[in-house]
Amino acid sequence: MANNTITLPSYTLTPRPTLIPGVSDPLLQLLAPVVAYWVFSLFFHVLDTYDWCTEYRLHTPAELLKRNHVTRYEVVRDVVVQQIIQTAFGLFLAHFDPVETVGREDYDVAVWAQRLRLAQSYIPSALALLGVDALALSNKVAEYPQFASVLAGGIYPTPTAAAPWESFVAKAIYWVAIPFVQFFVAILLVDTWQYFLHRAMHMNKFLYTTLHSRHHRLYVPYAFGALYNHPVEGFMLDTFGTGLAYLLTGMTVRQGMWFFTCSTIKTVDDHCGYAFPWDPVQHITSNNAAYHDIHHQSWGIKTNFSQPFFTFWDKFLNTAWTGGDVSSRYQRDRISAQKKVDAGTTPQQPSVVNSPEIDVDKAKQQALSSQRQVLDDSVNGGVRILEEEAREEQSVKTSTRRSTRRRTSGFDPKALSDRVAGSLHGRSHAILHADGAH
Description:
Helices cover 58% and strands 1% of the residues.
């Protein structure tokens, strides 16, 4: 076709220079998420240690002390094991990957410009179907030469060179649109993979008790517990899932580095235990720390399976928490945990306090299903947890508010409980998404 003659430039391929001298890009791709995990976790650990931003905490220090079933040492140990496995597997696969090259970029941009030129050749025929003479119309707008050339079907004074607008759009497609689509599709793939595998591990008793129950020893999640999993689950859910999305979308090594790192940061943020109104990571998508924290409670463990980015599968398959505002449940958990600290006792199994029934049929079904899941996990508490919940629930409902409370480690639990409960109440729609309208 005469008007589709943009000349494609020649090119020479050379190995891509490393982003950091002395560190190969495949190795950097594997190390960047690990570094991001611990740096980002350290930030939240500092907030925990110095009691900063307490008004945004979902749980109190007393709850971390009394409700979790695993020590911080065990969490760090298992996370490090998972990251070692993840890095070793990535290095193994990278050994078989071809060396990435550069030098073809201008050629690929020209190919997209050529495709745009070809698309313009169909404009006169399309306008003719509407009874419009494209050539006559282009003559009327001759003072706008590029627009006139488009209407004429891509006829330009210099047909072998791309027009300025064609070059601009072609570069935008190649450098922005395609990477964005790759990144977005990879996110959808990871969300889909993790939702169904995560849900299966809750629906299948063997998978839950053998693998996934380990992660749910953290009834009060914190940042560096995000990847606290059974090694087999960690490999299947995170390493294999994100790796599959990376391969299927055809990302470059550097694109993969950003994708893995962003996924890691999002996962840490979902377990950080803080509901910040100004945290962009918690507001870019409808999934956030408060949304996922419901899943870690005994009354919500069979809901809110979506992770780490969007919640569309929970909405579509009707597994999102529908029990309404959860601030009263959280407040009772805080009070119960603080009572244990005040009493100076450490029960054999940390407790999880349930709230009164919510008069919504589906919410009751979700809570009952979640409690059955807890009962199945006899290794980590089972019946004892629910028995303690019933006793403490009754105790909290019948006890009167204390005007003062003994301070623990310079920390006023009563004031914190009131502040956080009020904060959560005020943000229940925007942050907790607990009304089911995410």
